[in-house]
Write a structure and sequence with these properties.
Length: 416
């Protein structure tokens, strides 16, 4: 089959690598792609949030399957426009992508479906914000209600900072703080059948020891040696199926990738958020361990035939990825820095470009590259990922030194 992959970050590079080595994928086209993806796909350019333009490109390249990486095209209705051309799409409709696009909508669905999550209130003005904050003890959790690429959340003990974030956003969701280690669980679905991938953990804060501001994600590992027994089955039963059936009941079935962000609290797993797409950088580690051909799996989800898909096969061992971020990220990343070591095996490209004059690799975003590796166990995978990172140079760049460290040392404890 011919596959058109939309997006150009680290997640899409990881997807591209696995799509390219699926024997059923005879051609891989990516738009816009990036210099890493260029190694395995033909690159095209398109405005990702223009549904008609993307549908036109899908027709032009005679795609049999379109895989949508980022959330913005989903929320803009790109999946709907491509589907209207009779082309299979991995990714939800705009109506179903509201599970990610609106925190308020996601809470409504969770409430209707009886999904365990944090108590929450939507607030649109200062008085409402103050009243909601009064109902909770610190730390306060204040979320931008719209799409914020995983960066619209403030978790703080400082009430003034919580109020300031609410004022900046306009419309916010204020919710109960969930204490416990976080899990990202990806579920491939055709709207009815749910196929969970391996659970992963990402690192949202910019600094070691979870210090500093939230980011899009600074690293990840999978699987989770500390995860409670039965976690995945429990979440599929208590979260995923109730959510999928509520979405069907509303006439807006969710197909594609349901990303369940969880906290493992003393009362069990609680949903922190839903996303409507693969997470970045968790995708880099989860797909590094997947042996089942990816194109066939995504095509089955896109065509409503997941129930007939064989069970997934996974490599033994573990995977770790460490993000190399630009100077100033996340506040104000500096771009245009010259990168060396970007062609090593294990390097996933996120925010990179080639300089037209000489082909030099330059930084072009906040999260620039990821060093990814697998190993027979988490400690070995971690060492190998940091070995890849040591081979990368980008002046002023920074990365976390403690990705997967607590899990390797057995320091992650479940609240009781
Ligand atoms: P979100 O964009 O909803 O994923 O939030 C980003 C990050 O903020 C999460 O990964 C958590 O680390 C944190 N966070 C969000 N909501 C909560 C909550 N209710 N309790 C504790 N931490 C949260
Ligand atoms: N890793 C967090 C996200 O993709 O939103």
């Amino acid at each position: 089959m011919r596959v058109l992959l939309l997006g150009g970050g680290g997640r899409e590079h990881a997807l591209a690598l696995r799509l390219a080595d699926d024997p059923s994928v005879e051609a891989l086209i990516a738009a816009p792609g990036n210099p890493g993806i260029a190694g395995v796909a033909e690159l095209r350019s398109v405005d990702l949030v223009d549904p008609a333009a993307v549908a036109g490109l899908a027709v032009e390249v005679t795609a049999d399957l379109v895989v949508i990486g980022p959330e913005a095209p989903l929320v803009a209705g790109v999946a709907d426009a491509v589907r209207a051309k009779g082309i299979a799409v991995f990714g939800p409709s705009a109506a179903a992508a509201r599970l990610e696009g609106s925190k308020t909508f996601a809470k409504e669905v969770m409430t209707a479906a009886g999904v365990p999550t944090a108590r929450a209130y939507t607030c649109t003005d200062e008085a409402g914000t103050a009243a909601a904050l009064d109902l909770f003890d610190p730390p306060y959790v204040v979320k931008n209600d719209g799409l914020a690429a995983g960066k619209g959340v403030v978790v703080t003990d400082d009430r003034t900072a919580a109020e300031a974030h609410a004022r900046d956003c306009g419309r916010v969701v204020i919710e109960e703080y969930l204490a416990g280690p976080e899990v990202s669980l990806f579920v491939v679905t055709d709207g009815e059948t749910a196929v969970p991938l391996l659970p992963a953990q990402d690192f949202k804060r910019v600094g070691d020891g979870d210090s500093g501001p939230n980011t899009g994600g600074m690293g990840a590992y999978a699987p989770l040696p500390w995860a409670p027994t039965g976690l995945v089955d429990d979440v599929v039963r208590d979260v995923v199926h109730p959510t999928l059936s509520e979405m069907r009941r509303r006439g807006t079935p969710f197909s594609g990738l349901l990303y369940v962000g969880l906290a493992i609290t003393a009362d069990g797993p609680r949903v922190i958020e839903f996303n409507a797409r693969f997470g970045d950088p968790e995708t880099q580690v989860v797909l590094a361990l997947l042996e089942t051909p990816l194109g066939g799996l995504l095509h089955a989800a896109a065509t409503g035939s997941l129930a007939n898909h064989p069970p997934l096969r996974w490599r033994d061992g573990a995977a770790v990825t460490v993000v190399v971020a630009a100077e100033g990220y996340p506040a104000g990343p500096r771009t245009g820095g010259v990168i060396s070591g970007g062609e090593q095996p294990g390097v996933i490209h996120a925010g990179t470009v080639r300089r037209p004059t000489d082909g030099a690799l330059l930084s072009a975003g906040g999260r620039v590259l990821c060093g990814t590796a697998t190993g027979p166990d988490l400690a070995a995978a971690r060492d190998a990922a940091y070995q890849v990172v040591r081979g990368i140079t980008l002046p002023g760049s920074h990365h976390r030194r403690d990705i997967a460290a607590a899990a390797v040392d057995g320091r992650i404890t479940l609240p009781v």
